[in-house]
Amino acid sequence: MAEAGEKQWYVLHTYSGYENKVKENLESRAQSMGMEDYIFQAVVPEEEETKMKNGKEKKEMEKTFPGYVLVQMVMSDESWFIVRNTPGVTGFVGSHGSGSKPAPLLPEEIDSIMKQYGMNANKPSDFEIGETVNITDGAFSDTTGKITEIDDEHRKLKVDVDMFGRMTSAELDFTSVEKQK
């Protein structure tokens, strides 16, 4: 049995099609409610698939588990309540209702899922401060920025982005940037 205060992975059931919205909502609620030490990251497992559309090949990200989001969190009454009541979340997988806390994924289960998608659940990043990265997701998508801070625990980066000649600091997930080639 895990001790209280240990960060673990849980599976959330969501409305199908709302997985990315749930991920965004969870991350913004963790910040706005001061729960960054309880709610670390949300992951929507997806794979790139090539589809034919109008005779052309098109790459699309397909959700591997539609209707599910993985969340890394420390289970407490408050964090459980906040996550469960996030818009789009219908509940935790492995919870038996009536206020019972869900069972976390086993370390080997989350490692296997993360490996399958080229992610690592607990490995420190291979980003470096001062490194220039391409931003692939969010408001600064298709721009580059320089890393000023790395938070391995929350899997976030602070990146300085040039906006109209002024440097703006953005907090981004590891998954929202890629190293420059």
UniProtKB/TrEMBL annotation:
Keyword Hydrolase listed: no
Alphabetical UniProt keywords: Transcription, Transcription antitermination, Transcription regulation, Transcription termination
KOW domain residues: 126-153
Presence of the UniProt keyword Mitochondrion in the record: no
Any one GO BP annotation for this protein: regulation of DNA-templated transcription elongation
Pfam families in alphabetical order: NusG
Annotated GO CC locations: cytosol
Domain NusG-like N-terminal: 6-117
InterPro entries the UniProt entry points to: KOW (IPR005824), NGN (IPR047050), NGN-like_dom (IPR006645), NGN_dom_sf (IPR036735), NusG-like (IPR043425), Rib_uL2_dom2 (IPR014722), Transcrpt_antiterm_NusG (IPR001062), Translation_prot_SH3-like_sf (IPR008991)
SUPFAM superfamilies, per database record: N-utilization substance G protein NusG, N-terminal domain (SSF82679), Translation proteins SH3-like domain (SSF50104)
Annotated function: Participates in transcription elongation, termination and antitermination.
Family, as annotated: Belongs to the NusG family.
The protein's name: Transcription termination/antitermination protein NusG
Organism: Companilactobacillus farciminis
Protein's gene: nusG
